[in-house]
């Protein structure tokens, strides 16, 4: 009956491949075809330019409150790159780069931020779920999708995203626990962007890392430089491969930083210093990837400009398409159930009658609608 | 026709659905090896194996939230909440996702799942085991809320709930689980969700109830006839969302008087909605104010005193006499 330290046979690895000064660990460098590298860069840049466009459109009142993704692009894009079309991607709400890679149309994403359900109606053929608002609640259905992937036995996997703040929610822990118990092919990604609105990472949990939380649920974890697309891809590929082979879940904590505001309704000057932001601006994933591509000879200044022009044209087209959209004010009644209930039919008729009455200059004698 | 308790009838409905459709699965705490704390899931693990009758860890939100994800993979999960009170541990998943996905995604992603739970008081259970949350769920647009009252309709409604393309909260009156047996047809039977039934025809007054208090209401109707020469019609609501206004209003237009009976608290209870719909649609047919016989706006007492709280036939009779003699 000795007293001893227990050995917990789980590992948490730190991973960085390309640092912010451009130093590359050749041994760890993932093999990525040049064409894919260009496409990854284009997607990350597209995400960044889309983000800037959204920010300005919010300021102009053309969309609603917007949550920027600036600085966190690599931490979602790398995962989208590591999975196939048949796999699943369950976002939180700062995964625009991954969504663009998966084939989401920009006008659809704009519709979401402009307050239209059409922006959450995932296109056929894309195995993604829409943006999720209640923090960490998506971990539960992400776990369920992964569980379903296992039961279907077709080798599919599910990537689920959550933020550092979300790891304090019960839903995160319940989902992690179920994922461990049922050995679901789930890759649980934490975008640790250091801030949950105004609450810093240190105040969110006493754990030294978020990655280590996986140990409690019986599986392994990575903590990666989330602004290093190459490191994210290495970790994602390994976790996806393991999940596909029946090896169960992996937690991947991406160390990143929210360079922008929490949302356009937020003023981060109230809780964090400009110096801190500057420090992280130097670690921005986008120039890091561009410099890597240039060094590798798969991109040059001219090519970079051409990509920017292409994205700008696509953005203009998407913005135009988005602004042509007209919502049907009665559509809210149509999607409550497969068949509209009699009471909903009555309520829709009541609303239509009101609109007609209003259009008649409120002169027509109101009629009774049942 | 075999005679069955409600527990056996519910069990039969699940077995039938699971035999017919390999996508139907049951998940919850102690539903497998233990066959459910009320034995509603008896034999499911043996017949369908651990992937389709899943003993889960103890986390209601993960059962319900996980089921949402399973729906997207084409499964039709039946989630068991071990007790009504504990369903609140999954409330945010039910409110935040189960009821919203169809609307949120304009029909692209749906949740054809059932959340079953033992409902209500009357079995001398400890705190949090005797709750009547139907109004709480009925208030959440996007959910159907069904309460059977006997073995036969329990089997037919659970089958309908499993086949339904939308999420159904299925509240099983635990006081009725083994209280009586009924003939249950040998071949599968379904009932339309959203339709009430006339449990007893009458002409003097309409008594409206559901779940376990339907029995007390039917007993009251017998006594009203025998002792007071009052011929009461009794409506079994069966589904509080959608609510069958038509059947309720048609009966009240005939009788001109009504008493609504349920064990849940009165304030903002289903009775209030029923009264409102009658007032909106049949006011001029009413001969007397509508009475409500309900649980009180208190927390249901610990079991030593729960029968004081739960409506019994006597309270229904007194309220009916007041209505009829108004």
Account of the protein in words:
The complex is a heterodimer of chains A (370) and B (326). Chain A is of the alpha/beta class. Chain A folds into 2 domains: 12-324, Rossmann fold (3-Layer(aba) Sandwich); 328-370, no CATH class. Chain A contains 14 helices and 8 strands. In chain A, strands 1-7-8-4-3-2 form a 6-stranded parallel beta sheet, with helices on both faces. Chain A has a two-stranded antiparallel ribbon with strand order 5-6. In chain A, helix 4 (106-113) crosses helix 12 (301-324) and helix 5 (137-152) packs parallel to helix 6 (170-181). In chain B, strand 13 (258-265), helix 10 and strand 14 (291-295) form a beta-alpha-beta unit. Chain B folds into 2 domains: 3-183, Thiamin diphosphate (ThDP)-binding fold, Pyr/PP domains (Rossmann fold, 3-Layer(aba) Sandwich), CATH 3.40.50; 197-324, Rossmann fold, CATH 3.40.50. Chain B is built from 12 helices and 14 strands. In chain B, the strands form 3 sheets. In chain B, strands 3-2-4-5-7-6-12 form a 7-stranded mixed beta sheet, sandwiched between helices. A 5-stranded mixed beta sheet of chain B has the order 9-11-10-13-14, with helices on both faces. In chain B, strands 1-8 form a two-stranded antiparallel sheet. Classes of the chains: A alpha/beta (370), B alpha/beta (326).
């Amino acid at each position: 009956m000795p007293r001893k330290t227990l050995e917990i046979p789980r590992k948490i690895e730190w991973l960085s491949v390309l640092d912010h000064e451009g130093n590359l660990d050749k041994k760890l460098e993932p093999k990525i075809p040049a064409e894919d590298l260009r496409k990854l860069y284009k997607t990350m840049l597209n995400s960044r330019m889309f983000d800037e466009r959204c920010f300005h459109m919010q300021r102009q009142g053309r969309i609603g409150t917007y949550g920027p993704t600036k600085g966190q692009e690599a931490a979602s894009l790398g995962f989208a790159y590591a999975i196939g079309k048949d796999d699943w991607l369950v976002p939180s709400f700062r995964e625009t780069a991954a969504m663009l890679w998966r084939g989401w149309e920009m006008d659809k994403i704009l519709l979401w931020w402009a307050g239209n359900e059409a922006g959450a109606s995932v296109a056929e053929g894309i195995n993604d779920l829409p943006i999720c608002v209640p923090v960490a609640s998506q971990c539960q259905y992400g776990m369920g999708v992964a569980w379903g992937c296992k039961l279907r036995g077709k080798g599919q996997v599910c990537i689920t995203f959550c933020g550092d703040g979300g790891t304090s929610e019960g839903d995160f822990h319940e989902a992690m626990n179920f994922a461990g118990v049922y050995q679901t092919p789930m890759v649980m990604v934490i975008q640790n962007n250091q801030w949950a609105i105004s609450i810093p990472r240190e105040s969110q949990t006493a754990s030294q890392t978020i990655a280590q939380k996986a140990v409690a649920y019986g599986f392994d974890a990575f903590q990666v430089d989330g602004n290093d697309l190459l490191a994210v891809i290495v970790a994602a590929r390994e976790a996806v491969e393991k999940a596909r082979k029946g090896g169960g879940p992996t937690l991947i904590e991406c160390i990143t930083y929210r360079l922008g505001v929490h949302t356009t309704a937020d003023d981060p000057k109230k809780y964090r210093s400009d110096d801190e932001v500057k420090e992280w601006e130097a670690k921005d994933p986008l120039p890091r990837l561009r410099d890597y591509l240039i060094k590798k000879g798969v991109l040059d200044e001219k090519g970079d400009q051409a990509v920017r022009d292409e994205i700008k044209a696509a953005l203009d087209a998407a913005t135009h398409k988005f602004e042509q959209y007209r919502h049907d004010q009665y559509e809210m009644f149509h999607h409550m159930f497969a068949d509209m209930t009699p009471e909903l039919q009555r309520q829709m008729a009541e609303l239509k009658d009101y609109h007609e009455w209003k259009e008649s200059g409120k002169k027509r004698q109101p009629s009774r609608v049942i | 026709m075999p005679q069955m308790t409600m527990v056996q009838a519910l069990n039969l409905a699940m077995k039938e659905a699971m035999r017919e459709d390999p996508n139907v699965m049951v998940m919850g705490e102690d539903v497998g090896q233990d066959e459910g704390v009320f034995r509603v899931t008896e034999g499911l693990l043996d017949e369908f194996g651990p992937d389709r009758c899943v003993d889960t860890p103890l986390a209601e939100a993960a059962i319900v939230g996980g089921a949402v994800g399973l729906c997207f993979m084409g499964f039709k999960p039946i989630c068991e909440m071990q007790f009504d009170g504990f369903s609140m541990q999954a409330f945010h998943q039910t409110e935040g996702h189960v009821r919203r996905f169809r609307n949120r995604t304009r029909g692209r992603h749906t949740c054809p799942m059932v959340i079953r739970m033992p409902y209500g008081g009357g079995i001398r259970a400890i705190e949090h085991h005797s709750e009547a949350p139907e109004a709480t769920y009925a208030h959440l647009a996007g959910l159907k809320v069904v309460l059977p009252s006997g073995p036969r309709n329990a089997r037919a409604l659970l089958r309908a709930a499993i086949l339904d393309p939308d999420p159904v909260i299925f509240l099983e009156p635990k006081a009725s689980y083994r209280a009586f047996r009924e003939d249950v047809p040998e071949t599968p039977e379904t009932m339309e969700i959203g339709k009430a039934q006339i449990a007893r025809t009458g002409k003097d007054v309409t008594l409206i109830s559901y779940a376990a208090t339907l029995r007390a209401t039917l007993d009251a109707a017998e006594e009203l006839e025998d002792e007071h020469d009052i011929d009461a019609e009794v409506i079994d609501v069966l589904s509080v969302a959608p609510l069958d206004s038509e059947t309720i209003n048609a009966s009240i237009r005939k009788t001109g008087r009504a008493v609504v009976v349920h064990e849940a608290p009165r304030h903002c209870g289903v009775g209030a909605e029923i009264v409102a719909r009658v007032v909106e649609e049949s006011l001029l047919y009413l001969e007397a104010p509508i009475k409500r016989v309900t649980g009180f706006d208190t927390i249901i007492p610990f079991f030593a005193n729960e029968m004081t709280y739960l409506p019994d036939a006597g309270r229904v009779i007194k309220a009916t006499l007041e209505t009829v003699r108004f």
